[in-house]
Structure formats: C-alpha cells, structure tokens
Amino acid sequence: MILDLERFANSERPHWDALERILKVLEEDPGHRLSLAESKRLFYLYQRTSSDLAQVQSFAGDNALRAYLESLVSRAYGEIQETPESRLSRVRPFRWFFKGFPRAFRRRIGVFYLAASVTAAGCLFGSLAVALDPAAKAALMPFPQLLQNPVERVQHEEKEKGRELRGRKSTFSAGLMTHNIRVAFLNLALGITWGLGTLILLFYNGVILGAVFSYYILYGETAFVFGWLLPHGVIEIPAFLIAGQAGLVMAGALI
Question: For 95, phi and psi rounded to 5 degrees?
C-alpha cells in the first residue's frame, strides 16, 4: 500500500526511465538484438514496473501516472513476447527487398533449380518437337502471329517499323504486362495442387519458349527472335521461375 505517492514515484522513476530507454532502442531499430545481460535487465524492469502499476492502481489519485505506467508495461510486454523474426517482419520495404527477399530466395535455391530444370526440359521438348515435326508448331504455339512464316514476319516488321502499333502501344504494353503477371500469380497459386499444376505450367511455358526459339532459328532469324524476346524476357522469365519456386515451396509445405 502506498502511503506517499510522490515519494514512491520519485524512488521508482529511475527504473521507469531505464525501461523506457531500452524500449526506445528496440522500437527504433527492430533488428537490434539485446545481450543476455540486457535481456535480463529488460525483464527485471518489466516485472518491477508491473508491480509498481499494481500498487498505483490501488491508489485513488493520479490517473496520469497510472496511464503512463500502463503504457510502459504494455510496450514492454509486447517487446518481450515478440520474437526477433516477428520484429524484422514489420513493414520495411527496403529491408525486405534488399535483405529479406534475397535471403529467402537463397534458402530455397534448390527449389528454384528444380523450377528452372522443369522449364528447361520443356524448352528442350518444344525445340525438338518443332525441329523434328514442323507441323507441331500449330499445337505448341498459342498465339496466331507466331504461326506466320518467320522470314515473312521479319520482313513485315522491318517494313512497318512499329507503325501498326501506333496509337495503341500503351494498350499493348499494359496487356502484355497484365498477362504475364497473371501467369506468374497462377504459377504460384497452383502450388496448392501439391505442386502438380505448378510443374505443368513451368513445363508448358518452357515448351512454348523452346518452340518459338527453335522455329525462328531454323529459318535463320536468330538475331530477330533474341532481339524480340529478350528485352522483356530478362525480367519476365526470372519472375516466372521465382513464382514457380514459391509455388513448389507451398507444395512442399502442404505435402
């Protein structure tokens, strides 16, 4: 029971201030790790402040002091109960992009190699199918413009020089991006099929890539096909493979 509230507050305030200093460090830098001695000190100050709060609550006066101690105890409780991993998971876009995401990718690098291998197998299949049976391109290539004779298409592209897209380049670009984003998300989401859907989609997209490259290379249009696909493919293909990696990680968790 507190007989002199002012004297009690003056004697205990150094402990409250010490606790607040530790909490300020943890709140400003979620990645900060306390030493064993600092952790013990934090827990001791938390217990002592909690005890002080219990005594102040029994005193009818000073609501401001009680509100301050309640806030201090709740903040300390949150920091003690929170794990280092959950502190690091707070929304910090730059930390996630430059540290969290690369670390997660490297931890699952074997799954990425699996996704890339399945896609490469699809590329090989598509290339061989078109090389051995040119008529197979109608079944393997999903877009009508890909069925056009490569030499004729290159001549047409060089003649038109993009004039056929005049006035609708932004629409074409937006359609291309939304299509590829949708396929990437589908690749990830199909992990819920225990990975079977993800593997099929990885292989199928590899088949399309292999068929297109083989078809144009066989007609001597290697430079055109690389110049046509690689400027956006260098981003889209890795993004698609990473989405497949994520889908297979989800499948592994389900299994």
Answer: -65, -40
Comparing 227 with 162, which gets the higher pLDDT?
Answer: 227
Residues 6+ apart with CB under 8 A from 91: none
Which ranges constitute the DSSP H helices of 35-142?
A: 36-57, 63-81, 84-88, 93-95, 101-107, 109-132, 137-140
Q: Provide the phi-psi class of 195: left if phi over 0, else alpha when psi is between -120 and 50, else beta.
A: left
Half-sphere exposure of 143 (CA within 13 A, CB side): 9
Length of the chain: 255
Phi-psi region of 146 (alpha: psi -120 to 50; beta: other; left: phi over 0): alpha
Stronger pLDDT, 107 or 92, i.e. the higher one: 107
Average pLDDT, the chain: 84
Q: Which residues contact 188 (CB under 8 A, 6 or more apart)?
A: 198, 243, 244, 246, 247, 250
CA dist 46 to 6, 18, 225, Å? 21, 10, 66
User: How far apart, in whole angstroms, are the C-alpha atoms of residue 49 and residue 231?
Assistant: 61
